[in-house]
Amino acid sequence: DVLYLGLYLGVAADYIYSNKSVTSLDVVESDQQIINYVTWIDSGINVIEADAYSYSTDKKYDIIIDDLYWDESEVTQQDKQDLVDNYRDNVKVNGMIIMCITAQRTVKQE
Known about the structure:
The protein has 3 helices and 6 strands, in the order βαβαββαββ. By secondary structure, it is an alpha/beta fold. It has a 6-stranded mixed sheet with strand order 3-2-1-4-5-6, with helices on both faces.
């Protein structure tokens, strides 16, 4: 199970869904115009209109991928911590949160 934060053009999410062995792929995107524009991704991808910093779910994920930023200068340490705090309870044991632009990951231990 994968949670992907940030849809953009849907290329990464569609690649993951089509080429990796995922049970489910949920994508959180706050911009409804982007969601409406990206019509070519696989219909099995669940796109959720929500703010990534406040989205809440009871679902547990193997991997949560934060792909919200274009440049490391756009994200503060507080932004990173807020995301980890928001999703900490949604990561399965031995799962991880990956922050793409900063090349950081947090692995949940037992």
